[in-house]
Amino acid sequence: MTGTTTTEKSANNPLEQFVLLAKTAKGAAAIELIKQAVETPGVHVFGELLDMPNIKELENGPYVQYWNTLNLFAYGTYKEYLENKDKVLELTPTQKKKLQHLTIVTLATKSRCIPYSVLLEELDIKNVRDLEDLIIEAIYADIIHGKLDQKNSQLEVDYAGLGRDVRPADTGVVAETLAAWGQACDTVLACIEEQVTRANVEKQKATYHKERIQRDIANIKKSLAAQAGGGGVQEADMAGGSSGSGGSESSREALSAPPDAKKKQQKVKGIKGSGVPVRSTTSLPVQSSVVRKRSVQSVKEMENISQQTDPFQRSNNTKASISESDAFDIIF
């Protein structure tokens, strides 16, 4: 079980096996270990190996070139290799290509768009075709992520697929970069909070506006329902008002008649010669204006007939005048 776990860790971190071997490797074994580390595919960081005591011993002594070569792969570029060939080991084609890939990573951390001219100079490549082949290999190896812009003769880098070791002298620059990044994050966070607050305010306004519209709609519905239900009552009130006004006119006419005529009028149960009975009451039903007019006309006609057939009433100066209010009591 322990062997399986160690194998998995080594697969995830290819440098780990070299770090474990460096604990016991000294002299020639340490030299051979450095040569294998800089040439093994997938090993792109070397800081842990440089920190091992047995490797640090090579810094001062006859094997200083191995120490310098390991430092070159950890922090340097291919151009630095060309400038310091006498201080480092002669590199194999595989080691040269790895150092060129690491150089592209270093350039990518400084600029998102790297011109071909800069790459040709830094990598010591003579033609664009070889340069593009090298870049394509780096992309497929997941060392960098980007694309070739052949029209503008530049490499557009999205991000680097790996990170290089940081020189001890560059820790201040890293701290400044992290501080700037943290400040940018705070600025973005403040903008997001402002947008959230604004969105909440707009949401509250929209909710209030919606509720107000719903209340207005409910009130309009209630008003329409009340108007529809009270239409019959209004018509009855209008009819009652007309009857009341007619009654008032009848009352005025009744008041204008002599008192003895009103007494005779109340005692009359029928009109001679007409055959139509007449009854008197104080409660008048509500009738339409057309029926009321016809009733008044009929009453006047019957009054004329009564005057012609009854000589007593014709000679009597106290003839009773049937008012409009009594016309409503006639039953046809």
UniProtKB/TrEMBL annotation:
Compartments it resides in: Cytoplasm; Nucleus
GO BP, sorted A to Z: COP9 signalosome assembly
One Gene Ontology term, aspect cellular component: COP9 signalosome
Keyword Iron-sulfur assigned: no
Signal sequence annotation: none
Keywords assigned: Cytoplasm, Nucleus, Signalosome
Domain PCI: 1-162
Keyword RNA-binding: no
Pfam families referenced in this protein's UniProt entry, alphabetically: CSN7_HB_subdom, CSN7a_helixI, PCI
Residue span of region Disordered: 228-332
Domain of life: Eukaryota
Homology family: Belongs to the CSN7/EIF3M family. CSN7 subfamily.
Matches recorded under PANTHER family: COP9 SIGNALOSOME COMPLEX SUBUNIT 7, COP9 SIGNALOSOME COMPLEX SUBUNIT 7/DENDRITIC CELL PROTEIN GA17
Name of protein: COP9 signalosome complex subunit 7b isoform X1
Biological source species: Apis mellifera (Honeybee)
Gene designation: 411843
